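User: Show me a protein chain along with its predicted structure.
Assistant: Here is one chain, sequence first, then structure tokens.
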Amino acid sequence: MPDWNSPEQVALSLDVLVKLTHGFIGVYLWEFAQSFDFDWSFISGKRKFKWVMIFYFLVRYTALAAFISALVVFDVKTRINCTAVLATFQFTGSAVGGFATINFALRTIALWRRNWIVSSVLTVLILGHWSLILHGILIEGVFVPGTGCGITKINNTILTANLIYSMCLDFVVLALTSWKTLRLRNKSRKSLGGLIIQDGLIFFASSVCANVIATVFMILNLSPLMSVIFNIPAAVICAIAATRAVRKLTRWTSEGPHIFYTHADLPSSHEGPTRQTKEQVLELPTHHRSRTEGVHVQMETFVAVDEPYDATSPDDGKGAIRFVPDEESQDSDIKHARAV
């Protein structure tokens, strides 16, 4: 086994760290640019902004700030305030993982229909994670002429604890999501659970794997450089995974709205409202149907909420769901629905 603290290995480790950092930051900037149209749809008002999107934007732009700070640390050779730059990089880099976990946790809470036990456990774990993130910004640096910023003081114990905690928290979120989606998968292939099984769990798993690799190298502590060599790649993977999961879910719900209902009272076609003991999904078509297609209503598993379709009948007040088609096609669709 090589001596990781020898001058040759330190020089090699630094070269690998710089190239790996620039490569992964380039990947993130490409991802950021090619998906900016999604951000712009909220900024321009084309999409309705909801509070859960706050954490999506926090992940995106905190990661951007972190990686710009990293480029300053590695590439700027003129005298700067290294302590301020390093503190910014340390906080924003750790915050990326924190905000990404919140994004994943919100989806998990939604999947569990806001179960108070799941919500409470995840909230407490997230607060604990952020306490470690805030304690980890205590870092000092000094400018070295011809080299750039160098770290003079850092709390490795807090950083290691932060990575381990983040890895365990991501694993808990992944386990809860997998458990629930595997149960929903047997009920409906077109439910939110089915979507997460096919696409979403990949994002959860990739985030967990990235944190595991970074944590292993931090625990091994081969050298100061080798301990942090995978921190930026892990942050890039977490940021991309969390934001892609949000974009995938948002685009999916806008194409096929699904409504959250917990033991809802749904009207049957002949007997009026009856109490349902299982989760169900009302999948409503949002595009215009041709005259030959009619109106198709499919009952499956309730897994998501889409606000424009959360309508309650004022007559019975028991959670009856009504769907009003567009004005142009309303009359013709109703006529053909009767034929179907």
